[in-house]
Queue: 2 jobs
Job 1
Amino acid sequence: MSETSASSHHAPGTHPDLPPPVRTTGVVGWVRANLLSSPLNVGLTLLSLWLLWMILPPAIQWLFTEAIWSAQDRKECWAMMDAPRDAACWAFIRGSFELFVYGWYPEPERWRVNLTFILFIAAIVGGLRENIPGKKYWLFFAMAYPFIAAWLLLGGLGLEPVGTNKLGGILLTLVVAVTGIAFSLPLGIALALGRRSNLPALRGVCVIFIEFIRGVPLITLLFVASTMLTYFLPPGSTFDLLMRVLIMVTLFASAYIAEVVRGGLQGLSNGQYEAADSLGLSYWKAHRLVVLPQALKISIPGIVNTFIGSFKDSTLVLIIGMMDILGLGRARLNDPDWLGLAPELYMFIALFFFISCFSMSRYSFSLEKKLQTGHQT
Amino acid sequence: MIESAPSTSNPLLRLWRNKESRGVIIQIFTMVLVFALLAAIARNVVINLEAVGKQFSFGFLLWPAAYDIGFSPFLEYTNKSSHLRAAVVGLLNTLLVAFWGCILATMVGFVLGIMRLSSNWLVSKISYVYVEFMRNVPILIHILAIYSLVVTLLPPAKQAINVGADSFFLSNRGFYVPSPIFEDGAGFVGIVILISIALVFAFTHWAQRTQDQTGKIYPVLWISIGILIALPGIAFLAMGMPLSWDIPALKGFNFQGGMAIKPEFLALWLALSLYTACFIAEIVRAGILAVSHGQTEAAFALGLRPNRTLQLIIIPQALRVIIPPLCSQYLNLTKNSSLAIAIGYMDITATLGGISLMQTGKEMETMLIVMGVYLVISLLISAFMNWFNHRIKLTER
């Protein structure tokens, strides 16, 4: 044993620590522990590597290295490849990008859309950042944002009016999703409180509403909005289709939010309610100061999941003929110049939704960690 | 809030300040509001329907539905059949895709969930990336994308891909598989299958009771599989194999014979299953993680072997966490199957809520039926969930 001879220079107990064996540290150690720890794992690793080798190189080739980024139409695109459809023709997306973002919003008024987008980012950052000066005013701004955005987009009061049929593409997707998200939260909280109330009539109305909405698919509610909602209104009154759709999307999301918030309310220990009662707080004060802050905190992951769901559900409006990003993209596929470029289109739209939804879920994850106050019940 | 003044003379104010009477006032107010709203809607509906000359009646269900349904595996349907029959065909199609969707989603979901928990870094990360990508993209995009892949990438019927044995063909007209033809005596085999299932149930029950009383454990699974294979097998041979296959063959431009799994069904089924599987994977992962490690250690300390531990300790406890959200995923899948309309798969939304609505102009009636059907399905699934929850609930002292 060579170590014994080497350590003989040191007095007993003073030998400096030897480095750990090479096989258990660094890259080698990591690979041995995480990829090759047992015969089964060696097999799984080889299988995974084979799978990746089959998928990744062709995918990267199709997506990036051999893709065509600028061309006039698909013929030109395909002429530059070895064979048609051999690689992605991103020229299609680039050529239609303005249409995909703004829809048919009139050219000279597009600054309003841009301003709406900028204010949107400002409202989100201001509303969500913790340590921002003037936090209170940012919150007011975030709450007022949907109304400011409606004024900017639709005009009136000094701005050129723009019809709702001019909205389309990503703009329409965001309008539907953000409206659903912004208005479903207060409505959902109200429904959850109603369902938890000890007044039977109030509770019954809320339960029936929530269970009805959760029991039917959104698409049937959208059909109701597009075909029969006009029958419910006083004769002669007309109601914009977008408005009807927004109402339905909001009602739909609010039922799901209500269930999430109810879960949060139930997760709270009874002692909290009793403590608030014993302090002599009224119902509203107890809920505003004691119950809701805690209940909402527990339900954040569920609320964000519902938001993600309603963002994804906004694509369903294409089925009743509205031109959101998916509907507009599909209409664009019928353009003779770009016929048959469906993979590129769906890849682009999927990426748009993935980035939006994945960042939302990451944010909820980090928030959950930050709000963790240590005592878990 | 104002300090309550006991000596107030206004009786209404006094009623409002009393907690109980205030509750009654609020409830009366709510009910009046709700009924006023409903009455206003009903009145508007009556006036509006009269104005356009429509009547509220379900008589249209018996009118002939003058449209074709390309996919009706269970019922005879022609374009002379009634709207009611079209609705039933649609409902069966909804249930068909939901049933197979739930099965495939569960299988893929469990595999993905277990992969995610694997100690192998690569396997776990592949599952993670796949799950995160799939579930953050709307289901409608999955449906449309898979459908366009199926229709554009698969060859036409003449150059169909021969998947195997000259009897399975994949083309853009669908996936053609042999269909069974039952001959005389098949009914007897069917009865034997039912009897052997009953036998398995009786045996399981008996084995459980014996184990409770004596502690003796029978290999229930293997004996059950044996019964299920042996008895029908013997009956099948004894009756002279009363089963043959109708094999699809290319005639002209399309296949004749066999069973066709239409591209619409294929795309919808795959999209629904693969999308829902991602949510199931997360549920499975959470369910397994929810069983604390102490349970495994306790089982080992009692001397149980690893597979008995898994079977008796971990899986029952994980299932208690997994089943309720799993049921709501099944419900979501069923409701999402209504997106079939986007690719022309004829489910209940597409037949009754789509074409029948357009043809008859009966928006109210058709939408009421469609929503009612989905509500009933939802209620049935949640009733099952409640029953199951009650059954597996932890019995606490």
Job 2
Amino acid sequence: MKPPPFDYHAPRSVAEALDVLAAEGERAKVLAGGQSLIPLLNMRLAAPGHLVDINRLTELAGVEAEPDGVRIGALARHAEVERSEPAAAAQPLLRQALRLVAHPVVRNRGTVVGSLVHADPAAELPAVLTLLGGSVRLARRGGPGTPAAGVSVSPEVPAGGSLTVRDVPAGDFFTGPLESAAGPGELAVSAFFPALPPRSGTAFREVARRHGDYALAGVAALVVLDDDLRITSAAVACVSAGPVPLLVEVTGECGHRPPASAGWAGAARAVQDRAEPEDDIHATAGYRRHLVGVLAERALRDAAREALNG
Amino acid sequence: MTTKLFGEPVRRREDPRLLTGRGRYLDDLGRDALAAAFVRSPHAHAVIRDIDVSAALDVDGLVAIYTWEDLPDRLAEPLPLLIPHPALTHGRTAYPLARDRVRHVGEPVVMVVARDRYVAEDACALIRVDYELLKPVVGVEEAAQSAQLVHDDVPGNVGAHMVQEVPSAGGLDVREVIEDAPHTLAFRLDIERSASTPLEGRGVYARWDADDSSLRVYSSTQTSTSVRMAVAAKLGLPLPKVEVIAPDVGGGFGVKIVHPWPEEVLLPWAAMLLDREVKWTEDRREHFVSSAHERAQVQFVRVGFDDDGRVLGLEVSILHDHGAYTPYGIIVPIITSTQLPGPYKIGSYRVEFSSVYTNTVQVTPYRGAGRPQAVFCMERTMDRIADHLGLDRTAVRAVNFIQPEEFPYDQGLIFQDGRPLIYDSGDYPESLRMLKELIGWDSFPAEKERAAAEGRRIGIGIGCYVEGTGVGPYEGGHVQVTSDGRVHVSTGLTSQGQGHETAFAQIAAAELGVPLERVSVVTGDTRRFGYAVGTFASRAAVMSGNAIALACRKVREKALRIAADALEADPRDLEITDGMVHVAGTPGAAIPLATVAVLSNPLRYAFDEEAARATQFAGASSFDKPPVPEGDEPGLEGRDYYSPIRSTFASGMHAAIVETDPLTAEIRILRYAVVHDCGNLINPMIVEGQIHGGVAQGVGGALYERMVYDGHGQLLNASFMDFLMPYATEVPHVETAHLQTPSPLNPLGIKGAGEAGVIPVSAVIASAVEDAEGIAIDKMPISPSELFDLRRAAS
Amino acid sequence: MAERTHDITLVVNGTVRRAAVPGRRLLSDCLRHDLGLTGTHVGCEHGVCGCCTVLLDGEPVRSCLTFAVTVDGHEITTVEGLADGERMSPVQRAFAECHGLQCGFCTPGFLCTVTAMLRDNPVPTEEEVLEGISGNLCRCTGYQNIVKAVHRAAEIMAEES
């Protein structure tokens, strides 16, 4: 189990990275934390001609918590985001989810943006981005675009070359199992996770075979209350429940009621009905569908409790 | 002796080396060796039409490519069938490289040798093998019914069929007894595949010395002496020109007892041919698809019993999945069928098994070796009897126990060593009493009720076993005291983490009366000890432990004789303490063992001052006899062998309390208790460690691990991502208690402990889940998804 | 055609080490085969078993999921670098004292992981210990004595600080 040969590129700047990606197109793969990509290379299930190692692009390493949300650079490791108090304060779901991502040692190396781009429907972070309505910022060479203003984790505009930057909303970013909107020549430079609205709470519940494994089913929940502490919005995003993270809006099922009398069971049923899990060697689709319902109810209740406590 | 060593939790002498990165495992050796890699079959069943290596020839760093057609003489023959048996009428083994047919995914087809493993894998990827696909035979029941054959000349895919029957005391056969019994039950049980999966895979490193025409082979093996004989035979080399060494081995658990693996003969051959060092280190994917698995059986049970739950007749029919080949014979199903009666007096017993070929990885022993299946069968049967009669599960077991005064107890069967299955000693009622106390069996119903009131489901389970350990034929030990007072112990069998360097040193130090620090132990190195069988079947401590003790006693006797001469004392008055031979009760009259070693070797030449005492003008004690008397040998050393009349029989009982989530069907082990009897303990710390590890593997087999084949014979979970070996977060804390009923069969009174922990775990967990859920559990392992399905089916 | 190599410099256990490696050389292989530090073991090469765990700038990482060239210029600590000369570290001593190893193959990964864990959290709870070592497989010990050893190492470190 050794990786196949490839041309290794170690760009010193985002511009340089984009140049390589532009030149090599589909033959190039971006290496960040490598915790998903290198196993595939070692098993020779992937054989990119060129590997663009962005680990020297320290300008992409930031985690910036702003009032409106958390922007996470492409080199920010899971562990760093998990430890970040400002990030946890702005959006607690990040830490709640990251604690469920693999094991601590993997989180020391793996990156948040990398796991979004990997787009595994069994992974936690794509569901989080989907639930929160976040986005991924993609940069590439050419085109007329410029970086959006007011964002600190962004590639510099290199002299003598044009750059296109686009923010792809989560709903459009995950296009299939292990498929994202990031195209050839594009580099995901950061992701943005909107902040937790006032009087709201989040939770992440999952069942995995072993601690740290990809979940058989998992549910991230967001519940928002109004001034009277009644539910104004409730939604979940599910992992392992379809080809992409499954977002289900359940405000109607919950009812405009205080959490104590909310229609959690109905909400859970609605989530179950929408889930499209598949059989695999670890669990049947029927069991996963059942789990999605159980976990949706548990996660929604937890999120509502957080909202009340917050 | 100043310190009691035998029976003490002495810290391991292996550890400083292993804790500081100075262990030497197979792949740590041969830094400059060429690397081998293999093209392995991607298909479960196919004819090889053509192999085209041309595209690989341009790879920079390629050294050689070999297919079956390149193999000379005996290498071109199938690998040996290690344990022939009359019931194995159709034993089949693989060629080192597939000849014209592949029978499982992972079978080696082409060997590539290159500068390093990266390059070797590059070349492998460029080799094109043209296969004509055949229908694969997957699953033991399909194999037994299918017209498709794994081996064209094995009708019905049945490699072996064997029956053993023990009629009732009144001479009735089992079927009659069951017919006439007050109660009868019949049911089916299933147990799935798992595997040893040591964290270090297999590996071979071969060095050919052309100047000396000799071969040195390092292998991550459980039997270096047998590998040596196989390599010499396959390569046509004189045995003295071949040495095999097992370096530090990163776990074995059974899979490394099989030999010679294809790589163990191919690598030495390539090293000779190329006159270069060559090394192969198995990677994880290879380990899953090209080593060995175990466990898969389907069992059909009929049992007749009386109102107290006494088993009057038991009839078991087993379909055993043997995979594609039978290199290790039918040891696994023989063990299942003979260890099935466990601690019980079964009124009459008939067991029959068919060992069936499938297009999957071959089946050879994995820790427990057929016993987990046996215990699953017997203990599920006990639980069903209890359930049927409305009796406590422990009461049914107790009424069937062999009683302490009934040993030696003859089960009337022929065991895996070809000898009568006669239990040496044990105390099963006491073991059960200790277990019930440890787990709180009698107070559990109240606990369960309280949990139920909180909406929680908990259940308790139990499993009992008897394990034949320390099987023959023999092991040996060599002990040498050198003139610096150091004691060098060697034995031929190998070590894979059992702490032999420590336990054997404890035995030697205790026997010889020397400080532990002066003793060093070498295992698994044919340069030091050539005659051995291997490390398996919980036999190392019993076999080599006793052999080393016997060798030490020879050395001690000689030391006392020489010292008596020097001290002008009667050897019967001498003892050895702290490395000094002295007259008991007379301080001052003493001679260091080091000096005795000097005197034991009459010299002409002095190599140091100490040695001068043994030279010819130093003053011989007597001119009436030759310097080396008749029947004596120079040197303070001894060699002896231990070859028991039959196996010892360790035993144990486990209990667990589990909790099942009423909604998610997750299964959590809340408590796990073990009462264990392996006779006298050499080092209780090491024995406990063996139990912990065994239980953890058992938990893996009960709740997490399985080999999932699809209908095409593809192993779907050939990685640690999907083969769910438990982490620390999945394994319960194990509470242990020891009972010691010494074995009367060997000088040290010990029985084996290596496999015990794993044996009853699936039975125990099934029992506990069944108790929690009120649903019959007759298939293991069980996952939350499967429990969910069982609940659905039951409601 | 010969594969292109990259000249890298690593500070391994406090010593500057140089190597010329292809881009695809895994850090685990670089340490073991290029630098001869075979204490770091390789058990799966897909990031699950944790045998290959080393400290990268002090943080435990999977060396089988890291290319050597990526960490050019960084500091690596392997099991060979944990002891203080001939004196084993508290974590190493605790593993010996508690029988926290059998075959020893997974041990270097555990030692590196635990060393970093106790540095960041000198008095971990039982749950924190389990979480901390949850990414390391051991096939021999059943983990019980490893967990015990982690607590014992914490004690030794407290006694000696």
